[in-house]
Amino acid sequence: MSEWTEYKLGDIAKFQTGKLNSNAAVKNGKFPFFTCSPETYRIDDYAFDQKAILLAGNNAEGNFNIKYYEGKFNAYQRTYVISPACEEINILYLFYALQLCLHKFKQLSQGTSTKFLTAKILNAFTIQVPSKFVQKKIACIIKALDDKIENNRRVNENLEQQAQALFKSWFVDFEPFKDGEFVESELGMIPKTIETKYVSDIPHILETGRRPKGGVGELTSGIPSVGAEHVKGMGKYDFSKTKYIPEEYAATLKAGKVKGYELLIYKDGGKPGYFIPNFSIFGEGYPFDECYLNEHVFKLDFDNRGYNIFCYFYFQTDHVMTYLNAQGGKAAIPGINKQDIENILTYSPESEQVKKFGTFAEPLFKKILYNCKESQMLATIRDTLLPKLMSGELRVPDTDLINEMLDKGIR
């Protein structure tokens, strides 16, 4: 095993911070703007043009976000922009090493409303570092997994955009019907050949699940229980927030089991007077082979995968979102009920164009879910390998693939 040396971070890395307040973000800026949030915002100008590690705390609990980025960007005033201070340090290795230390940063952080790390704390923080050659090999292995996960994310984004574009063309802009007859309806002027129906008039299942009285406590195993925080769009499940219910309790549940391809709807939660529903679809073993919903998520199933997918897009149209915003914002605890869902006027699943859309979109969503499942597996492999490689417990293999990747530019 190669020799590992302990270094103070201040001896091997340079630290800068951004200069801007978080409200400097704009909707359609040219450059990424890294803040304390896990999300990446945009801004119209940049202050940095480099390879960098971005590190920042994002809440009172001391949870930290870390990202690696190459190119032009800007940063919030409490975001650290970190780069190697000497040639002996590989920046990707440093990124992965710091990624493993987020729980330690949480323990060392200061502040109340937002936790942060002082420059003094970071400078004194120590990490173990092998030779640069071993650093590069470790970075190659982990980056290969990260690249595949990122490629799956981009493919999924493209597939969903394809389905979204077709939905908009057919059911918002009505391109296939432009030469046909239009009629007045509660939805405005629509093609005469598309029939409308209320959700209540279409055979369906609409239900929530539940959790045991008193909650699920600190259970770390059992059957996954999906809450509203996990209904954030396709493929956006946060496994770090998974809660569980006992297997024996799950066996007693008569409702709320996810079978796959149902439309999942964010049911309640948020600030008083403000309700923004979100939607998702699970399936193909993603995020779990078996899981149940809690009482804060609706499952809407028309027993028709293509039509469930159609409704995933239809429920995000301005007409439905405005209606759900208004209904959900009325309650003291913002949220919607079954009647709100069943009162939605939609296009009938018997309409020919709706059927064609489902036939087109279903294989795209199947591929999205397969990619999500694969990325989940790759992330598990990565998260298992990373600490073992970083500690030297696993010897880095000499393979043609790693050598080829090194030749291509892991510097």
What does this structure look like?
The protein folds into 2 domains: 129 residues, Adenine-n6-DNA-methyltransferase TaqI, Chain A, domain 2 (Alpha-Beta Complex), CATH 3.90.220.20; 189 residues, Adenine-n6-DNA-methyltransferase TaqI, Chain A, domain 2, CATH 3.90.220.20. α5 crosses α11. The strands form 6 sheets. Strands 2-7-5-6-3-4 form a 6-stranded mixed sheet. It has a 4-stranded antiparallel sheet with strand order 12-18-15-16. It is built from 11 helices and 19 strands. The two termini are 22 Å apart. It is 35% helix and 21% strand. The mean pLDDT is 91. It is α+β, with helices and mostly antiparallel strands and 411 residues long.
Would you kindly provide a brief summary of this structure?
The strands form 6 sheets. Strands 2-7-5-6-3-4 form a 6-stranded mixed beta sheet.
**Measured distance between first and last alpha carbons:** 22 Å
Q: Tell me the number of strands.
A: 19
CATH class of the largest domain: Alpha Beta
Counting structural domains, the number is 2
In percent terms, what proportion of residues is strand?
A: 15-25%
So, the CATH homologous superfamily of the largest domain?
DNA methylase specificity domains
Overall residue-averaged pLDDT value? 91
Spans of 5+ residues with little confidence (pLDDT < 50)? none
Order of helices and strands: EHEEEEEEHHHEHEEEEEEHEEEEHHHEHH
What is the overall silhouette?
globular
Helix and strand composition category = alpha+beta
Radius of gyration using CA atoms only: 25 Å
Here the CATH topology of the largest domain equals Adenine-n6-DNA-methyltransferase TaqI, Chain A, domain 2
